[in-house]
Amino acid sequence: MSSPAEAYGTFEPSNPQQQRGNRWKKAIYSTGGRVVGLAALLLIVVGGFLLFQSPSPSTANGTSTGNDVAVLTASERTFIDGVQPEKLREFLHAYASVPHTCGTEQDYQTAVYTAQQFAAFGLQAEIKEYYTLLSYPVHRRLAIVAPQQNALELNLTEASVPGDACTTDPNALPPFLAYSASGNVTASVVYANYGTQEDFECLASNNVTLKGKIALVRYGRNFRGLKVMAGEQYGVAGVLIYSDPQQDGFTQGPVYPEGIYRPKGSFQRGSLQYLSLASGDPLTPGWASVPGAPYLKYEDVKTIPHVPALPLSYEQADLILRSLGGQKAPATWQGGLTYPGGYRLGDDEALVLNLDVVMDNKVGPIWDVIGTIEGAVEPDQQVLIGNHRDAWVCGAVDPSSGSAVMLEIARGLGELLQQGWKPRRSIVLGSWDGEEYGLLGSTEFAEERAEQLKKEAVAYINVDNVVGPLVLASGTPSIAKFLEDTAKVVPPNTFFGKDSDRNEPGNSLYDQWVAQTQRHRSKIYGVYDGTLAPDHLIQFMGSGSDFTAFYQHLGVISANLGFTLNGAVYGTYHSNMDSLMYMETLGDPNYETHASMAQWWGLLTMRLASDVVVPFDFTTYALVMQEDLAGLEQQLADMNRSVNFTELHAAIARFGANADQFHAHVKQFEATTNSSDEALLRHWNEKLVLLERHLITEAGLPHRPWYKHVIFGPGFYEGYMGAAFPGISDCVAFRDDSAAVQTHVDEVARIVDGAAAYLVASRLETQSISQQEREEEERGGRRSIMMPLSTPTGSSGGRRDVHSDPSTLADGAEAYGTFQDRAAVATSRKTRVPLKLWRFLGAAALLVFAASYMLLQSWPQPSSGHVRGINSSQEPVIAAPEAVTKVEFQEEETETLSHKHADEKLSKLEKKFLKNVDTPQIRAYHAAYASVPHPAGSAQDYATALYTAEQFESFGINAEIIEYYPLLSLPLHRRVAIVSPLDAARELNLTEATVPGDACTSNEDALPPYLGYSDSGNVTAPVVYVNFATPADFQWLKASNVTLEGKIALVRYGGNFRGLKVMLAEQHGMAGVLIYSDPMEDGYAQGPYNSISGGDPLTPGFPSLPGEPYLSTEDCKTIPHIPTLPLSYGQARFILESLGGKKAPNSWQGALELGNGGYYVGDDDATVLNLDVAMDNSIGPIWDVIGTIEGSEEPDQMVLIGNHRDAWVCGAVDPSSGSAVMLEIARGLGELLKDGWKPRRTLVIAS
Predict the structure, then answer these.
(1) What is the pLDDT of residues 1064-1082, one digit of tens each?
(2) 74-131+368-492+533-584+591-614: what CATH class?
(3) C-alpha span between 356 and 153 (Å, rounded)
(4) Sign, CA torsion 371/558/554/366
(5) Least CB-packed of 427, 585, 955, 1024 within 10 Å?
(6) Where are the alpha helices (DSSP H) in 931-1057?
(7) May I ask the CATH architecture of the domain 968-993+1002-1085+1100-1179?
């Protein structure tokens, strides 16, 4: 996979089963690459010229708006007829032949495959990487431990099916529940039915003890994560979730492999994320999981459980249920298993289980694949379609059926592109990763591009499962008619075969859909089923798939399409039996349903992208709102809540009237064919697209602010199922008082009224509304749960999340990779820095290098046999090249070096190397590094990495940039103040002084003085002077009865490493540390406890790569857990002069002349400080640059030289002097390489 890896990025391991090698980003930076690129550019230019000589109907001049939805255009007919079931089978096998859980190597391989296919079809392809919380099982045990006669180890291995390769694949992860906490619990078990809020409430009201127990619940009714959430709220210590045969097993029909339902040995895996609170990475709610973003601490996350949980098959659950005693469960709690006394609650506490779970919950990479077809007329308007790619095991149905269909759509669109067709608007295909864990990939994509999508997204159409003959769809009222109208021109689904009379009658897919829905609704006898009036074909938008972030969070019009075998979840859902064998024997043997979905989904995409007027209709929206509001009004009345809905009803009525008026105008406009008023067309389309955005609240719903749509959302305690007016529904669920309900109802009325006004606003008024909204945002009038990523005013420099024009990266970014989306790289460095010193430093360093390195390169390894390059006296020789074209070492051309006196003679090459040292060139290199601040992980630091790699390449040295993700540390807020005694009270100045003429001292990008890896904290306490803070210093204070615990230590640099000063202070219970530079010593710096270990504090002993196990900062023993700051001696003087108590020993006296007669300890507790520090200690990227010259004879033996590149500020001395010298060495070696020289051993130059 070398070529795909270079094209799209490389796999970064997160599989807990094994350790994997580093990811080394290869640089493709050659003349050949430039030639190929130029040729490709010429082809594009010529091809584009020819293409646009014959524009397709959708891109021709003029604005023909007449679209007959019942008639297929020529391009649409070509697409429909071109769908090939055999290609769908090929694509499905490519995805579903192996397990590919998110974040694993197999998952990455499916990403590369998808990108390759997109590119082969003529689409632009990109792999987008995010770093989210992932979850894998390490150890699982469940046993009945009491009573003794029932003691039994339960079998947690999933059953296999003869002939089904997926059920025996050794790469499959065992059954588990993602985001379960680790834990070992021994407790009695309680049966809690479906684990709904009502079920736990019922148990509690019947005096069944829940606290500390293990809850056994069955799948159904609500999302699995919400079962655990409800259990945690009632104090349970662990949860077991099993698949009862009443839901999807033998009571429904024959089980797999004979039938479609779940056999007894099948486990349903799944995520335990609390999906009704938020989707996406639990560690980054509301913002994207990209390097440099702030991540919540795992312990602080509110959207995943903190108790252990496991899934069970009903075969294993049966062993528990049959042993339960206590009260008989209610009749509605009885399942599909039969026992003499029925299902019991277990409230007698006789049955005790041991549940032991160890999980690897850590941050790791996932990979979205984005395919793009740029629009010809409105390229800034995007029609998005998507399907997730990750699976719990092989996932032939979920999700690979949808993945295969999306590839077939891409192939069909690619064929049209080759024929000259172009969509009016851009089409974006999203192959999402991490959906199974909590809609990770789609949510991170939507959060990262939120502002762009709010402006440019026309619609999002999602597909998850394609199995069976029954049509399913959910969507917004605004897209409902379009879904139905398009289905009317799609051929009927011949699921049972082209000529089978078992197929649903009808002339179109729509006819079949209507017949199927009528049969279903006739069986539920008018029971509310969450479908949209007036047709009741389409369900409300809830959650549980990748439309969630687009619709519920951003307000993008969306739909979710699918097919099902039985009107419910298919029987092998989320098991190892969701396999190719299941699909090809039961799910869709002829791939006809796949073909129908490709035709319907593809046609929807084409029309959304090419219809001149976007095909949305808001005329039924008011009807849906009125119909579903009535039920909520009744529920609140039953709760004796006094709520006035008058304003909301009036707003809905206005919305309905304005929608009718608006669409009448649109129809009038459409009737005017060949209109040339593009501005008016844009006006109508903007309203049609953006109106849904006016139904979201930026503040979010009252009980869950990540969800923002006020008309539709998932039920809070259901998760999957959609609810109308979700905020009002939440008020019912949480039993809010009348005032709280009224506040939200009034807010909804205001939002609906605003949307109604937007419908009929003129173009000028629409622009005014948009300007008003922007001004509100600027004034802070809208709340958001997104955490700020930028530093406070005055300390913005050097942040890892710098945003600026990525085009400044030019070719270097393409060759070596980019600073994510945040690159801000200076392309010119004109600041002049005095460099007289470097003439001497450079010459000295190069002489040392020449005297040692050349010797190392030519000195052979010890050997008992003859080694070429050694003379008869076994003295080493330096070989010179015979010619550039023939690099072969001839003994007569060498100069012998004595082992003792190697420094007395230089070879010709060494002399040439030294002679070529160019002091002005060193100065230029030095200026390139030291003209700007470049702390580790910043955009400027990345710029220096690119610069170094480019220089290495220009010298003829192979260059690589290696990216690691260690713990980084940046200051957000710093304050030190003397608060007592009052006569000494003052704010200390923490801004470093400037020097006239020294540009670095006034550079606004410089970070302020701070101590890396300080903890955050706000401490007000007396201060104690602790000298150098060595063990002896603390010992003297303790012997002198000076209280240290809870105090702030003032210490001076010198005597020991700064991190060890803080470590010792912590060991003595101190609450904070200030370290100053006494004029007796010099300088300030920052760092961790590096006498314990070096490198990333979170990965001691292993590399900081995505997928590696990271320690939590709380568990890290090599960094402080108290706040610390550096001080200048100018500021330290104010503290030292106010200290009283004992006078410090003579050896503790520094060089400051203090008005109080010397340095005092401060043990009188009279001087009190406030130390307030807020740090951003988060994982982020750093970039090593590796230059390599391969050895000619012993290439596996490496000589390494290195210098660090990052600086606290500009770092002219530390480290840029060494960086500049190392570049000059690289240049000199490059000159020798041009002359034919090659080292004996490989030389590695590390920046």
Answers:
(1) 999 999 999 999 999 887 6
(2) alpha beta
(3) 12
(4) negative
(5) 585
(6) 939-954, 1031-1039
(7) 3-Layer(bba) Sandwich (3.50)
Burial class (CB in 10 A: 0-12, 13-18, 19+), 693: buried
Report which residue type is found at 979.
V
Determine which of 474-488, 610-624, 703-717, 810-824 has the lowest per-residue pLDDT on average. Answer: 810-824
At a CB cut-off of 8 Å and minimum separation 6, what does 447 contact?
280, 284, 286, 287, 288, 549, 553
Q: Which two tokens stand for residue 278?
A: 């938020």
Q: Which helix or strand (DSSP H or E) is residue 75 part of?
A: helix 74-82
754-812 per-position pLDDT tens digit: 999 999 886 555 555 555 544 444 443 332 222 222 222 233 222 222 222 322 223 33
- What stretch(es) of the chain map to CATH 3.40.630.10? 74-131+368-492+533-584+591-614, 908-964+1182-1246
**Mean pLDDT on 817-841:** 34
Tell which residue, 452, 451, 346, 407, has the closest CA to residue 111: 407
| Strand partners for 430 | 370, 386
Quick: pLDDT tens for 341-395: 999 999 999 999 999 999 999 999 999 999 999 999 999 999 999 999 999 999 9
Active site residues: 435
Tell which residue, 351, 325, 329, has the closest CA to residue 193.
329
Residues 417 and 134 sit within 8 Å (Cβ to Cβ): no
The answer on pLDDT for 833 being more than 90 is no
Q: In terms of pTM, does the model score above 0.85? A: no
| pLDDT computed for residue 161 by the predictor | 98
CA quadruple 885, 889, 891, 895: dihedral sign: positive
Return d(Cα 272, Cα 283) in angstroms, integer. Answer: 14
- CB count, 10 Å around CB of 1051? 27
CATH topology of domain 133-361: Glucose Oxidase; domain 1 (3.50.30)
**Homologous superfamily (CATH) for 908-964+1182-1246:** Zn peptidases (3.40.630.10)
Contacts (Cβ under 8 Å, ≥6 apart) of 711:
621, 625, 695, 724, 725, 752
Query: CA–CA distance from 979 to each of 475, 1026, 1159 (Å)?
Result: 61, 20, 20
Which two three-digit tokens encode residue 983?
């006569």
Residue with tokens 């987008």: 128
CA 1242 to chain centre: 38
Spatial separation of the C-alpha atoms in residues 315 and 313, rounded to whole Å: 5
- The confidence score (pLDDT) of residue 825 equals 28
- Contacts of residue 558, defined as CB under 8 A and 6 or more positions apart, other chains included, come to 459, 460, 461, 462, 475, 476, 479, 541, 547, 550, 551
**CATH 3.50.30.30 placement within the chain:** 133-361, 968-993+1002-1085+1100-1179
Task: List the structure tokens of 450.
Answer: 């939120």
Length of the chain: 1247
Q: Please identify, in words, the CATH class of the domain defined by 622-668+679-764.
A: mainly alpha
Highest mean pLDDT among 380-389, 532-541, 619-628: 380-389
Nearest in space to 1005 (alpha carbons), one of 938, 946, 942: 938
Amino acid at 1175: M
Q: Check whether 42 has a pLDDT greater than 90.
A: no
Residue intervals in the chain for CATH 1.20.930.40: 622-668+679-764
| Distance from C-alpha of 797 to C-alpha of 991, rounded to nearest angstrom | 14
Say yes or no to pLDDT of 531 above 90.
no
pLDDT at position 57: 36
